[in-house]
Amino acid sequence: MLIFELPVLLLVLRWDWRRSPVAPAVLAGVLGFFTYYYLSQVFATAQNRSFPLYMAAASLAGFALVLVLVASRLNADEVAEALPAHPGHRVLAAYLIAVAAALILAWLP
Question: Is residue 84 scored above 90 in pLDDT?
C-alpha cells in the first residue's frame, strides 16, 4: 500500500503546490482513498501490533481530507474548464486496460 500510494500522494501534493485547479479534487480523492483504506483496516481486521498505526493513519487521512474539502480553493467551474470536454479514445482505453489488469492481478491469487 505505502509503496504505491505514498508516492502518488507526494506527486499530488507537489501538483497542488503549483496551484493547478484540478489538483484539490485529485488530492481529495487520494485522501479519501487513504481514509477509506485505513478505516477498513481499523474496523475489519483483528487488532494486532499495527492497530495504533492504523488508527493514526486513519485519523490523519480523515482530518487532512476535511481540511482539503473545507479550506481548498476547489471550484467546479475551474475544474471543468481545465479538463477536456471529450477525452480521447486512447486515453479511455488505456485507463480501462490498466484497471482490468490491476483487478486481474489483485484477484488472480
Answer: no
